[in-house]
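Lab notebook, bench 4. Still working through the backlog of constructs that have no structural model yet. Next entry is a single chain of 506 residues. Request: give me the structure tokens for it.
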Amino acid sequence: MSTGARVALIALDAADLDLLDRLVDEGRAPVFGGLKAKGALGRLSSWGGWLPGSVWPTFFTSTPPSQTGFHHYLQWSPDEMSMRRPDPAQVGTPFWRHVTAEGGKVIALDMPFAPAPTSGTELTGWATLDSLEPPHASPPGLLEEIEARHGPSPRVAEMHALQSMAALRKLRDEQVAIAGMLAQIAEDLLARERVDLLAMTFPGLHRGGHWLWDETGLASEPTSAERAELAQALPEVYAATDAALGRLLDAAQPDEVILFSLHGMGPNTSRLEILDEMLHRVLGGASDATGPMRGIERLRQAVPAELRHRVKDSLPTALQDRLTGFWRTGGRDWQSTPVLTQVADLTGYLRLNLADRESQGMLSPEAARDLSERIIDGLASFADADTGAPVVRRTARIEDVLPPGENLRMLPDLLVDWAESPAALHRAVVSPEFGTIDWPTPGRHPSGRAGNHRAGGFYLACGCSLPSGAGPGGDILDLAPTVLSRLGLTPPAAMRGRPLFGSPDP
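Model written out:
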């Protein structure tokens, strides 16, 4: 019986291409290096610099965030005036399910934010944290089979706080093991039949990049030995992923391989930890923009982060979401709240409390325009207290960033794009008009995330009928139409992207 796959579409989630190239030069990523030597490497643009959480649905539906309305695992509900987890169906239908619907055979493993499958061979929410649901699999019995061999899902909730060296070692080892586990799951499934498409994600580069990028996420100064160990932690995750990729390709024996990353990774530039205070200063402290719970929040912060994390992690997911939303929006008087900061991971998300949109809105369109200008100008006035370098690169209106779409109203109104310098370098930020705000952890990032996303992505395509060398540039919207085209299928009319290459030779 023939086994393997015609096309292997493999996500190296949030990979840093510079680090990959360095490891190729050091001989630690030979599989990626071999593919790069004979394949076509191209850069991919996206809206991920503004809406990092939007990239996966944008990729697998080939539609912009203004169409899906998706940008974070917790989003603002204007009807409920609270944060909630979106309906998984909101993200749209992943393109590989069109392949299945057309009679093609597909194996899809751990593609982030994909809704639970109902047909084909697919595993969702297994090792990736980017999922709106617990693990699901199709056909019936597959999830139980995987659990019997590999144990329960290796997903572990993140603790957003400065980390111990022991915690980072544990995370490194988990991500190394996950790479091998996913390769084994794929090998087992590929041995059963030959499929038209294998679509799969290696999530360790993403999670490892956030927490292992450098030492700015550590709670204490590392020893020289710990510093050397941490410097090798993320490369070890990359090397393990490269080895797992080699196993996967040996099992799949694909005619064509497309590796990709929808966005990258670098030092953490997020200043979300002080955005509420910046906004409070800009608005003169007279509004309820940052909530009436500032004192209660200080008490919450006095509880050790590990204890808070253990308690929260023991609760059902729905209750965890409600708690997160409560700390963001609880106890507000909405008639004195013209704007709020939404839950975010990198870019600042600001939502205006519009009278004709929010159920308890207060702002007229004219007042919203004036307030937006005030916020944009005010945030731009903050700079590093020591260097004078601006803290905010740009604050943009959502309609100036995205094309029109039926779900544009579900997205934040203002997007705060931070300066490229690492946020951990701050001692304080200062505005001539609004005063000084101390950085919570000088020399460290208080979230514990040493790394965070960069907007640029890439693809590496390799196959006998594909070009080699420098590939054409494109957008993450183009990947789904490209794969469908390589499989001889016509992309649906709703897709906004275009094939990066022509159809394969007959």
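Notes after review: Residues 224-252 form the longest helix (29 residues). Residues 13 and 388 are 35 Å apart (CA to CA). Flag for follow-up if needed.
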